[in-house]
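Re: beginner question about structure tokens

> Can someone show what the tokenized structure looks like for a real chain? I only ever see the sequence side.

Sure, here's an example I had lying around. Input first:
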Amino acid sequence: MRPLLTALLITFGLSFHALANEALSLTPQETYDIVQNQGDQVLFVDVRDPVEIMFIGYTDVVDKNIPFKLADRNKFLADKGRFAMDTNPDFAASVEQALKDKGLGKDALIITMCRSGSSRGKPSADYLLEHGFTNVKYIDHGFQGSGAKEGKKAGMRIVNGWQNEGLPWSMKLNPEKIYQP
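And the corresponding structure tokens:
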């Protein structure tokens, strides 16, 4: 009886997310394992602005860098101390083209990754679901992870994320994968 109840709860939980049109998260390690085992059936997209990638790091495990938000260097938001980030108007179309380039359709698994998972990873995955893609997930804690809460390194992004799980990354960008408008 317990396994049946567990299965029903899992089914209901997944259905709830599908009905709510919200993407589910994966850990960096789960993503790495999926890409290693099923890479030809998955599209793994780094959704960060390429300038951010240039300064923070990159993993060549991704299929493509397609930014969800692009920094608008003409709009500085003084109250937030940063440039405005505008949605890339070509985001959904570029993801669809990347799927086609791999011989995949809009029902293939797409995994998005940003710096932390929350500001662009999840929103980009939800955006794709809203635009007709049916199987989209994002990496929880993204590429760089969360900031430490205490100690000498408080605030530094050393807690989790792709980099901190010891997965492959470097500062060298792959010009064939990085977004170049």
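Each token stands for a local structural state, so reading them left to right follows the chain. The radius of gyration is 17 Å.
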